Each structure stands twice: as structure tokens, then as C-alpha cells.
Amino acid sequence: MSSTPRILAALTIGVLSACNPWQRDIDFYLDSGDALWDANVVAAGDGVYVRMPQAKALMRVQSDGTMSTVDLKGAEPTRIVATPDGESVLVFADWPYCEDTDPDIVRPEDCPEDELVTLSELALVKGSARTAAYDVPPHLNALAFSADGKTAVAYLDYSRDMEIEVDGLIDLGEVMFIPLEGGQPRSVSVGFSPEKVLFSTNAEGVDDKAVIFSRSEVVVVELATLETLVTYPLVLDADQVVDPQDAVLTADGTIALVAIDNSSDLYELDLEKYSIDLEELDSEPIAMANAVLPGIDDGTDAQVTLIAYPDLPKVDVLDENTLELREPFELEEPVTDMLVTATSSLMYNRRNDDAKDVYDIDLATYEIIEYRVANPLDSLQLAPGEDYAVGILRPEYDSGNSLDRYQDEHWGLAVIDLVAEKETSLVLENEPVGVALLNRDDETYALVLMQGHDHLLQVQLSEPTFFIEVELEAPPIEIGDMQDGRFYITHDAALGLVSFLDPATGDMTTTGGFASAGLFPEAILPRQPNSAE
């Protein structure tokens, strides 16, 4: 365990306590509710990246106690996204700039109000270094990545809570292609409010097209040239407006299947012949997923798309080769979510409190095993090895006798043994803030973090009523996995605290105190002509 950062932080606070003006500033930051750090960190490489709103800085924290500030050239990070390889992060960042070039202007308050503007960029960070920066408009706040990780597409996700600032003019149909291995980003206009980007691959398995879904149309862009190959209108009448609800590509990348809000029509867009067909479904789809029916066609695997409905107790099976519906999976309750593996699919409903079934469907035989959990499912995940599924159960209205009411009123944990075909619903002491699953010593465990508790529960899934408590330095906020197989845990600690857990050994190290850099932020104009970049 790394205690040095905590000792230094304690010494820092001890020294500052002797100076009353400084101590008042510290008390103000720690008591005002303005957090010094954002505990929703992003893992990449051998560490995690932490935003520090007060310091307007980005910190990299490693399990060996190393803490380093990423040099963003004075820009403030507003959002962090890990690249697909898990080794780098892309950082949305902005900084104040004074258009008045008076050399005496050093701080934002020195600049005339009508001359002070905000500039922005998307920075590529590896380790503690800013290796590249891209000029991306600030309203493009979301990223999609090609499967090979070589291309990122920035677009506007209007569902995010943000204000769109217009400097002159902006194009709400703009997306930007960013070559992460070198080259300049390029902007492409693809229709109004693009909201989903998928990538198709050619016969050699190379990403060759981006399929961009926006209001009332779908645009296909060639990645090599960034030329628009075809635009598919989803309506013929310009006065009509339709919004894609969900979309998937077939396994071979040749067909885009598009579900539309408030419609039972499924659009089938051929990306090679550039044609459109419609499949009339029995209801409006809520979820779609690619799957393989192993050996079901005279020993040949069949590539299919599974289609679920919020109001129908079945899942349709669309053959991706013929684009015809096969025999559906008939269920007792509708499902909204599907976890698909090579041989099976777990299906459940997390939107309807009355639907508590979990279905384990053998994709080769159509055999369905039904499990019933005690409370509505808030989430469900498969353990490594796929022998277990673990779900978080949310509280519901009281029902039945006093014991039923007790279970209904509390958060819970559902453990489904998919080999022994049994389910156990456990009651948790408090609301869980995260669950991670791991294998160690031929056993599978769930690590359960609960709000306000300074320990985690290590639940052995083969005997889920047996668990041990693992002490933590402070109550946890979230848990996540890292590229090397370890887990990180962020904690409720004013000056910053992150734990790193090695699942192979059970060893946990802790690094803290890094947010003290935000106690006395210095507000300057970082990229003025008279300042060093």
C-alpha cells in the first residue's frame, strides 16, 4: 500500500492549518461542495486519468503511487474518453483567450469582457504526454471509433447535458473524422443531428466505410477518401421527420438494419448495391443484436440479428443472408436487453418492474431456461468464463408478507449459476455503487461496492451466501477495470483517493492526496501571445 501521498497530504494540511487565511480557503473548498476532483475517472495504460475542476488540470494516477499532471498547455479538460486499445485517452479541453493583445493582460479578469473567448481542442494523451491536438468544434461532444481503432468520429450527442455555444455559425449536421495515427481531421456534413456511427468492413476485414445515422437519413462515407458514397432517405416526404431508434450492421458489414422511433418498419439498407428494403415487424423494436445460430442449418452456422420488443413476449430472428424472419424465441415476458455469446443469449427486462424473468437461450437448440429473480433487474453482467451471471436488483413497491416486503424494499444481488441452473437473490445492506467480476484460484467472485460503506463484499459465486468483507480506505464511488486485468476503485475523499486491486493476488494499493493541487488554482490566460506555451 502506498502511504506516502497520504502522509504528504496530511503534512500539507498540518502546515497550512497554522496559517489562518490559507486554512479558511481550504475549509471553503472542502465544505462548499465544489469538488477538487472528479471521481468518475478513465483508465488507460497502467493508470487512471482524473479531472480536477478547481485546478482546471488533468492528473494521471498510478498504482505505484506516482502522480503526474498532464501538460495540456493550459487547457482545462472537460471530458475524457479512452481509445479502443486502452493505452491512450482523448481529452476534450478548452481554455480562455483574450483577443486583446495588450501584453499587460495576464488573467481573465484583465481582459475586456467582449474580447474574452473560449477556444477548444481534442487532445490525444499517452502516459503523461499530450502527443497530438485536433481542432474539433466544441459542440461535437461524442466519439465513435472504428474497430481497428485508427479512426475516431466526433459528433454531437444532444442527449448530453450541455449548452451549445454558437461562434458565428455551426453546422448541426457536421461530423469530424480524426486519424489517430497521423494526419489532419476533416469535417463532413451528413444531415441534421447525427446520433449514431457504425463502421463496416470489407472482405479483408479492414474498416472501409462509416455509416452515419441522422434524422430522416443515413449517410455512408468511404474512410479512405471521406467521400459520401450514398445517402439513404428514410422518408420520401420532406415534411415528415423520423429518428433512428437503433441500428446494427450485419456480421459481414454489407447490410445496415435501422429501427425507427414509433414505427414497426425495419429498414434494410444494402451498403453494396445501395438499395433499401423494408421489413414489417409485429411491433416497434427496442433492441437488436448480432448472433450466430451454431450448426443450425445442416451443420452450418447461421448469422442472424435478434430483435426484441417492449410489448411482445418474443424475440424475432432475422436471417442476415436471406433477410427473412426465422422461427422466433417465444418467451413469457417481453425483454429489453440481450447479452449474446458464441452459443447462447441471456435476455432480461430492465424497464418493467413487473418483468423479473431472465432467459438463458441456447442458440443452437432453441432450448430456453427461465430464471425468476426477486426484484426488478437494474443491470446484468456475465462473469469471465460465462458460467455465472450477476445482476443488481433495485427496490420495488411492497408486496406479500413481511419477508417479501423486506426484500422488495432493499437493493439486492442476483447470482445465476448457468451450469447448475439455479438462481439466488440476495439482500444488500445498502445501494450498490458498482459490481466487478473476477476469477481467482479456480473460483469466480463478485466484488460489490456499497454506498457509504468503507468495505467491499467479496462474494463467492459458487456459494453466494458466503462472503468476506475487504476493508477500504474510504467509502467507494465506483469500480472499473484496467487494460492489464486489474481493477481501480475511486473513493469519497476530498483530496483524492484511488485504490488498485490485483485480482490474481488480492493485493490492493492506494494512492491519495493528488487533488491537493487544486486547493489554490491560479487563473491565468495560458495561450496568449505574451505567454509561453
What number is the mean pLDDT?
Answer: 87
- From the spread of the alpha carbons, the general shape counts as globular
Structural class: mainly beta
Low-confidence stretches: 1-32
Topology, number of strands: 40
Strand content: over 45%
What portion of residues is helical? under 10%
Give the helix tally: 3
- State the separation between the terminal residues, measured CA to CA: 37 Å
Main sheet summary: 4 strands, antiparallel
Radius of gyration, in angstroms, nearest whole number: 26 Å
Strand order of the largest sheet: 1-2-3-4
Task: Give a quick rundown of the structure.
With 533 residues, the protein is mainly beta. It has three helices and 40 strands.
Structure description:
- By secondary structure, the protein is mainly beta.
- Helices cover 6% and strands 46% of the residues.
- It contains 3 helices and 40 strands.
- It has a 4-stranded antiparallel β-sheet with strand order 1-2-3-4, with no helix packed on it. Strands 5-6-7-8 form a 4-stranded antiparallel β-sheet, with no helix packed on it.
